[in-house]
Design goal:
The complex is a heterodimer of chains A (110) and B (115). Chain A has 110 residues and is mostly beta strands. Helix content of chain A is 0%, strand content 57%. Chain A contains no helices and eleven strands. In chain A, a hairpin with a 2-residue loop joins strand 6 (54-58) and strand 7. Chain A is globular, with a radius of gyration of 13 Å. Chain A starts with a strand and ends with a strand. With 115 residues, chain B is an all-beta fold. The chains are: A mainly beta (110), B mainly beta (115).
Chain lengths: 110, 115
């Protein structure tokens, strides 16, 4: 059973701080990694994808991938209350075995 | 780009009726579409994967005769919940993929309430 694990949270950070979200996965051959944001009552929205080891930055978001450790993370700089949501980590292997983690609930306190 | 629509956004029906949900990729051709279900405060659960022109592949525990999936074209997939019961009440979400880079783009979801 291929698994993706995340801390359920809630993770609470003050406004303006850096939020750090972590994800581990079990399938060593995974090649594609995603972070989705899901607001309560809404569907997931893709915010970052990463395919190579290292960091990928997009605005206030930075995804970090370490395939050797089977670990992917998302950093949110200058956190805003509007970032409060559930963040889903997802892992895939060339169109196969797309698996979502259970999500981490982030709360940014004003 | 990568916009996926779903219709209806919300449906309330009586127990025993069938409900059809449409999922459309508006600005790209989707080689694969996925159907998920999400109960309150729970994670997404993949129900089935469908490729255009092929039979859907259902996840273990999902009744294929109850959840009928048709993927008639590269831009349209439908999910029909047959003989719906209150326990089928949930948030149903579709996603679509071009196959490139494994990315999935989600529709806005359909909230089904079965009375």
């Amino acid at each position: 059973q291929k698994e993706v694990e995340q801390n359920s949270g809630p993770l609470s950070v003050p406004e303006g701080a850096i939020a750090s979200l972590n994800c581990t996965y079990s399938d060593r051959v995974s090649q594609s990694f995603f972070w989705y944001r899901q607001y309560s009552g809404k569907s997931p929205e893709l915010i970052m994808s990463i395919y190579s080891n290292g960091d990928k930055e997009d605005g206030r978001f930075t995804a970090q991938l370490n395939k050797a450790s089977q670990y992917v993370s998302l950093l949110i700089r200058d956190s805003q209350p509007s970032d409060s949501a559930t963040y889903l980590c997802a892992v895939a292997n060339y169109g196969q075995n797309f698996v979502f983690g259970p999500g981490t609930r982030l709360s940014v306190l004003p | 780009g990568a916009v996926v629509s779903q219709h209806p956004s919300r449906v309330i029906c009586k127990s025993g009726t069938s409900v059809k949900i449409e999922c459309r990729s508006l600005d790209f051709q989707a080689t694969t579409m996925f159907w998920y279900r999400q109960f309150p405060k729970q994670s997404l659960m993949l129900m089935a994967t469908s490729n255009e022109g092929s039979k859907a592949t259902y996840e273990q525990g999902v009744e294929k005769d109850k959840f009928l999936i048709n993927h008639a074209s590269l831009t349209l997939s439908t999910l029909t919940v047959t003989s719906a019961h209150p326990e089928d009440s949930s948030f149903y979400i579709c996603s679509a993929s071009t196959g490139a880079k494994d990315e999935q783009f989600f529709g806005p979801g359909t909230r089904l309430t079965v009375l």
